[in-house]
Amino acid sequence: MKLVVQRVKNAKVDVNEKTVGKIDKGYLVLLGVTHTDNKETVDYLVRKLCNLRVFEDEKGKMNLSIKDINGKLLIVSQFTLYANCSGGNRPSFTDAAKPDYANELYEYFCQKCQSEDIEVQKGIFGADMKVSLLNDGPVTIILEK
């Protein structure tokens, strides 16, 4: 599983010109699932994400987690994180999990984040989404297991 975590001032995702998820201060999380991922993978990455300390404290040091600042999550599935371009110019997506399995783990990931008392907004799995964000910093972290 790969997460691209962007610290944002705000972010939203639109589907068919309608906003389906929107947050203020927090993380925009792009989430990709591969074949070997399971619930243990999700549990590990949810713990990492929810305790990641990249928000500034009163001294300007990145020392606070999303929980500490009452931040929000916008979680968007993105199978293209598993693109493989080593064989040519057209990406192969064979490393991405099948949609049914990926969606199951995506939903589980979102539920686990909610169980951490963090507000979660989502995109729509498999939809053509338009994602907008104001990156804060910019701070972008890649988490993978």
- What is the total domain count? 1
Mean pLDDT, rounded to whole units? 97
In terms of per-residue confidence, which ranges show pLDDT below 50 for 5 or more consecutive residues? none
C-alpha Rg (nearest Å): 15 Å
End-to-end separation in angstroms reads 6 Å
Tell me the name of the CATH class: Alpha Beta
Number of helices: 2
Binned, the helix content reads 10-25%
CATH structural fold name = D-tyrosyl-trna(Tyr) Deacylase, Chain: A
Number of strands: 8
| Shape, principal axes of CA atoms | globular
CATH architecture: 3-Layer(bba) Sandwich
CATH-level-4 superfamily name? D-tyrosyl-tRNA(Tyr) deacylase
Tell me the major beta sheet: 6 strands, mixed
Give the topology, please:
Blueprint: E1 2-15, E2 18-23, E3 26-32, H1 39-51, E4 55-56, E5 62-64, E6 72-77, H2 99-114, E7 119-122, E8 129-144
Parallel strand pairs: 3-6, 6-7
Antiparallel strand pairs: 1-2, 1-3, 1-8, 4-5
Question: Could you please describe the fold and organization of this structure?
Answer:
There is one protein chain. The chain has 145 residues and is of the alpha/beta class. The chain has a single domain, classed as D-tyrosyl-tRNA(Tyr) deacylase (D-tyrosyl-trna(Tyr) Deacylase, Chain: A, 3-Layer(bba) Sandwich), CATH 3.50.80.10. The chain contains 2 helices and 8 strands; from the N terminus they run E-E-E-H-E-E-E-H-E-E. Strands 1, 2, 3, 6, 7 and 8 form a 6-stranded mixed beta sheet that branches. A two-stranded antiparallel ribbon has the order 4-5. A hairpin with a 2-residue loop joins strand 1 and strand 2. The longest helix has 16 residues. The radius of gyration is 15 Å and the shape is globular. It starts with a strand and ends with a strand.
